[in-house]
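Incident log, structure service

09:12 report received: a user says their structure output differs between two submissions of the same chain.
09:20 pulled the input from the user's history:
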Amino acid sequence: MERGLTVAINLLLAAALIGCAAGRPTGSSPASQSLPIASSLGQARGEVERSVGPQQAATLKALAETATASALFTPPLVLSTLANPWQGFPEVEQRLSRVTEAASMPRPLGPLLVSLGRVTELESAEPRLPVPPTSMQVEEQLAYLEALLTEATRLRMQAVSRLTDEERQFLFDHAARLAEDFMPQLSEQDGPERRRAQADRRFVELVGDRLDRTSLLAAAQLLASLDDEAWMERVQPAFTETPALAHPVPGITGSVLLFKQTPSGLIIVGGPGPNTYDLLQPIALLLDLGGDDRYRGTVAAPATVTQGVSVLLDLDGNDIYDARPLGLATGRLGVGLLVDRRGNDQYHLAPGSGGTGLAGIGILEDREGEDRYIGSRLTQGASIGGLGLLVDLAGDDTHNSFGYAIGFGGPLGAGALIDVAGHDRYQCGDRYPSRYNEQEAPQAKPGDARFEYECFGMGAGVGQRLMPTLSPSTPAGLAGGLGLILDLAGNDQSRSANFSQGVGYFFGAGIKLDLDGDDESVAARYGQGAAAHFGVGLFVDAAGKDSYGSTGPFYNGAAAWDRSVALFVDAGEDDDRYDFQQSTGLGIADHRAWSLFFDAGGKNSYAVRSGKGTAGDGSVGTFIVP
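09:34 re-ran on a clean worker, output below:
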């Protein structure tokens, strides 16, 4: 037990013995709560500056020089936070506050798109939203849907207008490769890896320089206006009295009430009973009125390079989604939107599906029920060169993934998983062996305590680092994006492998926010507010009696390495438990890095193998318990 004000700050000018050293490779109601970042920093700053003011000034000067490390498309907010975390983190808080406010709204999708865009310096064009019909006439409902799809398609065409046909096809095709094998570190001295890096760079440059992302965001906002409970209440009975088509529709079992080709694409309305869908042709909009349905193939995702928008609205039932790769709630050179209104649903997510944006915007909203999200990689709020969003509004949910998922932002990407209510379970890892195994435990096998896995998820902003490069003049790689996991309420459990739970890697910003509940968090190396190689890591738990642990071996709880910054805040005054006996942590920094661990109060217990406000090689690490 530790009470009173504890400040542990250390500055050394020698190489560290932990982290990446020794040859280790890369690597009230919740809605009304304000985030506690600025207030916590305000309590800590005076003591830090009194204790190590000159040393901190030198560290921050080194951090301010990060712009000289050439990475393409470095987020301005990351650079400003690296240069001065005392000012940068409150700016992060200000922008995130808009996200938490939007998440608490009855119709969150549109406001969330706007607020997430602003976090990443992307302003919306604020499209004019059509007014949904108040009548229950089928003709009026169809006219409304067709008008909305027409305008969204026009905006998408405007977004890709500066790209040639060949460039569009490249973006569409290479998105599939990124979903399968994106890597955070590649070597330019290895031929295949160099070619992969060149293709990845071309993908990101085309998105950053030629894709009109503001118009694409406007198209997504337009489609997100379908997130309207009052309209859903009207449209369901409007079609219910429509007789089913007499002839079967290929790829569909169960009743079909409408099958219509429009200039924007195919519109289908499925009946209120159970259906199965396995359609090969592109679908602009699929509206299912109810029943326990099963979806296969490609839905709520552009199926071809020429298709711009695809929407799936399922109004009721316990549904099962079996997506093809990049085939469900995926934006690939366009917008994919899935809204599931009601039911206990299962999402079996292949790579690049389930709220994923790859040169596009992919959105999945589940409004009600106890749901299971079973993912692979680049799923559940993930993006490279776009925006990926998964929003779950209610229910005790389960989120599983292999990695690069559950709030993952790769280069020029913003990925967010937002869960509003329920006691939720999150898991990431146990599939991709870590590179650390080769150097640190070459004899270890899967299942051994020393065998490690990668996650790069659960709030991970991750760039692509070239190491080694062919020459000093070679750009160092692609800067990471924003990875966010936001849980507003509930007693949650989080378990993950290396690089997870609010981790920033190579100019990326990784953020995990939990606003309420008695939570349990277990991570591994570089977890729970950690950063490496010019990254920004942030972990915030606003309230609750929480338990934190690590499977080890290094760097948890405000851990920064190599010109990075990391902040961990537990703002509640309940009794928290920290069991890091297999790891190091709680305010540690090395290689000109800055970290701060802050727990606001309570009778906390700390079992840590080593750390608690230690630093090395021109760094500042702080551990503060008022």
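09:41 both user submissions now match this output. Likely a transient worker issue. Closing.
09:42 reviewer note: Residues 1-6, 10-32 have pLDDT under 50 and may be disordered. The radius of gyration is 24 Å.
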